[in-house]
Design brief:
By secondary structure, the chain is α/β, with parallel strands linked by helices. It has two domains: 31 residues, no CATH class; 175 residues, Vaccinia Virus protein VP39 (Rossmann fold). Helices cover 33% and strands 21% of the residues. It is globular and about 60 Å long. The structure holds S-adenosylmethionine (SAM). S-adenosylmethionine binds next to α4 and β2. It catalyses: uridine(2552) in 23S rRNA + S-adenosyl-L-methionine = 2'-O-methyluridine(2552) in 23S rRNA + S-adenosyl-L-homocysteine + H(+). InterPro entries: RNA_methyltr_RlmE, RNA_MeTrfase_FtsJ_dom, rRNA-MeTfrase_E, SAM-dependent_MTases_sf.
C-alpha cells in the first residue's frame, strides 16, 4: 500500500486489547427508524470503523482480508491479484500494499459495477463481473494473462428473503470460483465470501478437486451475528491448459 496513512505490515492487521473506546449512544430521532439508529450506534462504537478511518482504509472489510492473510500468509510481493466486487476498495488497498503493486512489482486488478475513487497501484474496471466481456477484460489487464490470487468479496444487495439472498451470493461465488480455475497459475489462491452453512456441496466439490487445501474462515472482523463466512482455497492444481 502506498498510502502512508494505511499503515501496514502483517503485524498490524488485527484489533484486540487496548482498543477500547467510549461508547456512544444514539437516540431514535423522529425521522430515524429503530434499525437505522441501531446501525448508527454500531458504526460509532465499532473499533474497526474507527481504525479504518485512522489508517485511511476505505472499508472496515479491509481488516477481514488483513486478518485472514495474517493467519494464512498468502499475499506476497510481486503477485498478480484480482479483486472481484472491490468497491469501495478496502481489500484492494490491502492487496496493493502486500504485493507492492505501486512500484510495478505486483499487480492488482479490481472490478465492481459501482464506481470508486482511484487507488495507487490498483487497476479499476467499472463493470458487472457477470457481463460476458468481464473475464476477458480482467485477463487482458494481467501480466501474462494469469493471476496468483483471486479475491471475491462480492455480495449483491440483499432483498430480505433469506433463500433468495443465499442463492444470489452462492451464484456469485460459483462464478468467481469458475473464473479462478481459469485464470490462476498453478499454486494459486482463491478467497471468496460465502454464507453460513458454508459452501454449497457442488462448489465445495469443485474447489476440493481444483485446490490442495480448502477451509472455511471467519475472521474476527466479520461480525459474529452475521452469517458471513469465507472459503479459502490454496494450492491450485492447474487448469486443463497448464
Ligand atoms: C462487501 S462489498 C465489497 C467491499 C470490499 N471488499 C472492500 O473492502 O471495500 C461487495 C461489493 O460487491 C459488489 N458486487 C456485487 N455483485 C457484483 C457483480 N456482479 N459485479 C461486480 N461487483 C459486484 C458490490 O457492488 C459491492 O461493492
Amino acid at each position: 500500500m502506498t498510502n502512508n496513512k494505511s499503515g501496514g505490515g502483517k503485524g498490524r492487521q488485527s484489533l484486540s486489547g487496548g482498543q477500547r473506546q467510549l461508547h456512544t449512544a444514539v437516540k431514535t430521532a423522529r425521522k430515524r427508524s429503530v434499525s437505522s439508529a441501531r446501525w448508527l450506534e454500531r458504526q460509532l462504537n465499532d473499533p474497526y470503523v474507527a481504525a479504518s478511518k485512522r489508517e485511511g482504509l476505505r472499508s472496515r472489510a479491509a481488516y477481514k482480508l488483513r486478518e485472514i492473510d495474517a493467519r494464512y500468509n498468502f499475499l506476497k510481493p510481486g503477485q498478480r491479484v484480482i479483486d472481484l466486487g472491490a468497491a469501495p476498495g478496502g481489500w484492494s488497498q490491502v492487496a496493493a500494499e502486500s504485493v507492492k503493486s505501486v512500484g510495478g512489482k505486483g499487480q492488482v486488478v479490481a472490478i465492481d459495477y459501482l464506481s470508486f475513487e482511484p487507488i495507487p497501484g490498483v487497476d479499476i474496471i467499472e463493470m458487472d463481473f457477470t457481463d460476458p466481456n468481464a473475464e476477458d477484460l480482467l485477463k487482458s489487464r494481467l501480466r501474462g494473462g494469469k493471476a496468483d490470487v483471486v479475491l471475491s468479496d462480492m455480495a449483491a444487495p440483499t432483498v430480505g428473503h433469506a433463500k433468495t439472498d443465499h442463492l444470489r451470493i452462492m451464484g456469485l461465488a460459483e462464478a468467481a470460483a469458475a473464473f479462478a480455475a481459469d485464470v490462476l497459475e498453478p499454486g494459486g489462491v482463491f478467497l471468496c465470501k460465502v454464507f453460513q452453512g458454508g459452501t454449497e456441496r457442488d462448489l465445495l466439490d469443485m474447489l476440493k478437486r481444483d485446490f490442495k487445501v480448502v477451509r472455511h474462515v471467519k475472521p474476527p472482523a466479520s461480525r459474529q451475528e452475521s452469517s458471513e463466512l469465507y472459503v479459502l482455497a490454496t494450492g491450485f492444481r492447474g487448469s486443463q491448459g497448464d
